[in-house]
Amino acid sequence: GIGFFTNDGKSVGAVELEPDASGLVQTVFRIVSLEDGSEVYRFTSPPQAIDPSEGGPGEWTYIDRNDPARNVYAMDYSSGGSARKITHFTDGRLTDHEWSPDLRRIAVVRHDDNGENLWVVNADGSAPKQITKFDGEDIVEFDWTLDSKRVVVRAGTQSRDVVLISNLR
Predict the structure, then answer these.
(1) N or C end of the chain: smaller count of CB under 10 Å?
(2) 28-40: per-residue pLDDT in tens?
(3) Hey, how many other C-beta atoms are within 10 angstroms of the C-beta on 70?
(4) Which residues, in sequence order, are CB contacts of 35 under 8 Å at separation 6+?
(5) Residue of 27, 69, 25 lying closest to 46 (CA atoms)
């Protein structure tokens, strides 16, 4: 599977593929304490979820491929509660999302007829703002700087250029 440290640094997560009762493969997340190795949480990803990511304390987020615009949803993994919609795009399709290190904002890649561009929304989905204006390009990868003030973006299929976007407000 795939492993990652949780945002609080106290646990490690593992993503594994396991068969369900009918033999269909499902994605299972295991959160294990670094202190004593005990399993803190175990939850199964909804089948429509893609691009999973840890969100705020006790929750994980994903892009819902059943949503026409593929918005970002959050789910409390400690209780397995119902999902809540974070972003509210009505056109285009989200293809990727990344939380800022301070967990105050989410950068999302939004694909439409003109290609892909990066948008930033607050953690509650408010104040969506387009921060790139690429025409016909695809975003290959992006990441927040550790201070949560800048996003580094690599776009295009031919270019090896990297763009640093700062002064995000």
Answers:
(1) C
(2) 888 888 999 998 8
(3) 25
(4) 10
(5) 27
